[in-house]
Write a structure and sequence with these properties.
The chain is about 25% helix and about 35% strand. The protein contains 5 helices and 21 strands. The longest helix is centred in the C-terminal third of the chain and has 29 residues. The protein binds 2-acetamido-2-deoxy-beta-D-glucopyranose (NAG) (2 copies).
Amino acid sequence: MENLFTLSVMFAILLQVLPSCAVVVFTREPVVEVHEDAEARLSCEFKTQRDESPRIEWKKTKGTMSTSPDFVYFKEEFRKSFKDRATIKGATVILQKVTQGDAGEYRCEVSAALDDIQLGEANVTLIVLVPPHVPTCEIPSSAITGGEVEMLCSEPHGVPAVSYIWYKDKKPLAVHPLNGTYSINQHTGTLTFRSVTKADTGQYHCEARNKAGPPKSCQGTHMEIDDLNIAAIVAGAVVVCLVILLCTFFICYAHRHGFFSRHRGRSFWITQCHSTAHISSQNLHRTEDMNARYSPPPEEKQQDFKHTHSFML
Ligand SMILES: *[C@@H]1O[C@H](CO)[C@@H](O)[C@H](O)[C@H]1NC(C)=O
Ligand SMILES: *[C@@H]1O[C@H](CO)[C@@H](O)[C@H](O)[C@H]1NC(C)=O
């Protein structure tokens, strides 16, 4: 209210001070915040000296698909998506059923052809509030004592941008702990432990908040902190698995490259395991050999050759 009063006084003073005939344009609300589906009032007021009916235009200057401004109100008509849901009172636009796509910056332009200074303008920013969605959380279910752990919480939809609160066992974690082992960034949603201890074991979850609506939480995850020796055993098991995998891979590799097929007689059972792809590739090699030795046969002969070849098989 006070701001409005100051603005009006300034406007009145401005009118007194201006020596020449000029159009003066201003807005009562340079930043408008509304919820989706609500009504938005884009205020624009003007004062002309002589011109009784100045031309009024509204453009959307930021938040458009293109880089150039979009016309909103032009030649006494609303354009495109504004057509059936906007009305104008003086120069103030009232927009119904606001969507997220309406968010952006708008400019009200008033041109009075009969005044000395003919053009005046005012900018209005429209912010469409979006309550937080359920955030996505990345919380490890286990970690090793002394290790570094980073947890992430992310909610990109909220307008204005959400801030994050981390919870351990349903109790909020202080952002600036006295002697905690962690640090929190409320704006990026990270919770970092430089060196976890057994005491950090617990159920973690995170909450996204903004002023547009109720806060939303992700499902929690229990993080267990294990000592290194247990971890070493697990790591050993992983190494053994890797070795087995590598061996298997090596045997397969040897098969593919015909290492075993040189001893066809002795290891017939292995040859049986060969994929059909391998057999046909061998045949292809044979065909190529023949083609190399003999001059390329005419089409009929090639047909014959194919028959013979399959017969040989
Ligand atoms: C409105 O915004 C434009 C940039 O988009 C700027 O050039 C202009 O000076 C602004 N007008 C007022 C009255 O603030
Ligand atoms: C901080 O650490 C000291 C010991 O170093 C301990 O006595 C105190 O209780 C701790 N404070 C909190 C809030 O954990």
